[in-house]
Design goal:
Strand order of the largest sheet: 1-2
Number of domains: 1
Number of strands: 4
Number of helices: 10
Oligomer: single chain
Largest sheet: 2 strands, antiparallel
Order of helices and strands: HHEEHEHEHHHHHH
Shape: globular
Helix content: 40-55%
Length: about 325
């Protein structure tokens, strides 16, 4: 830190005069410019994680899964990132999360890190909703391209395949393609369909109105501090879903770790306006058609049988 040179006195000062009183607090403080981050910090890590995630997805489902899934995830995160750039909110490029061998699609998704506070609730709303809207916009053509892959097959035991819970939109697409699915039959999706399913799942999960999730951003922007009550209720709903599907254990813990409270913006007083409230209703519709109550189909009884705790029924 350096201070500017004081302005000259209006008249010469004699040696015997007392030293002048200077209002140091009124001087402007000039801070040195922050050093530019290295290429590794700015974008190198992001590129490396993107390549590793692409390789991990490829091992899980091949090139069609890579193209479909990465396009959805990239659109989602770039929606957030570009909105941050528009409002001059400091944010990183997307970090993709490879997860080979132990994940259905080879990744846990992606995220950006926002490093500065939101200037006001309008910016918070736009940044929060931009990701789900962009990801869903790309998910629709991926879902359309998955229809030719879909087939009907007899519904067998879980050992013959993994059964996924269907979001409403995927159910509507299957009904349009096949009509009423006969009893004892199930719809089989290919790698493009799996990319669309995971894209819908990520969109629905992020739109849950809790804490730091995208839905939490939108809810706080619309309702301010009252969003805390909605966030707490939403988390308890997630805990209640564990009764119906053990897969919600992971998501309930993850949501709790992310936090249920949302920090204030720099200006919490200006309303977001009627137009953004209508876009918020659109976000609610997307949540309804994308949300998967039971991502991995199966009850507690099925899980305990697979673990050998209960005898096969």
């Amino acid at each position: 830190m350096s201070l500017p040179t004081p302005p000259p006195l209006p008249f010469p000062r004699e040696e015997s005069d007392p030293p002048p009183r200077v209002a140091w607090a009124s001087w402007p403080v000039v801070a040195p410019p922050l050093p530019r981050p290295s290429a590794w910090i700015a974008w190198g890590r992001n590129v490396l994680l993107f390549v590793l995630t692409a390789a991990s997805i490829y091992m899980s489902g091949g090139p069609l899964l890579v193209g479909g899934l990465l396009s959805i995830l990239l659109a989602h995160e770039m929606g957030h990132y570009l909105a941050c750039r528009y409002y001059r909110v400091d944010a990183t490029l997307p970090f993709f999360l490879p997860f080979p061998f132990f994940s259905l699609v080879g990744t846990l998704g992606a995220f950006i890190r926002i490093k500065s506070p939101f200037p006001h609730r309008r910016a918070l709303f736009d940044i929060g909703i931009a990701g789900p809207l962009a990801g869903f916009a790309v998910c629709l053509p991926v879902l359309a391209l998955s229809v030719p892959e879909m087939t009907l097959a007899p519904a067998g035991p879980l050992s013959s395949g993994l059964y996924l819970g269907d979001p409403l939109l995927l159910q509507w697409i299957a009904s349009w393609a096949f009509g009423a699915v006969p009893d004892g039959m199930t719809v089989v999706i290919g790698p493009v369909g799996l990319a669309a399913w995971f894209g819908l799942f990520v969109t629905g999960l992020n739109l849950i109105p809790i804490g730091q999730l995208d839905g939490g951003h939108v809810t706080y922007a619309l309702f301010g501090p009252r969003a805390g009550m909605i966030s707490r209720l939403g988390w308890w709903v997630c805990v209640g879903l564990i009764y119906f599907s053990p897969s919600w254990i992971v998501w309930a813990i993850l949501i709790r770790v992310l936090g249920r409270q949302h920090p204030r913006t720099m200006n919490d007083f200006d309303p977001v306006g009627r137009a953004r409230a209508l876009v918020g209703l659109l976000g609610l519709v997307l949540f309804v058609v994308c949300f998967v109550p039971s991502p991995i189909a199966g009850s507690w009884e099925t899980l305990l049988e697979a673990l050998g705790v209960l005898p096969p029924s």
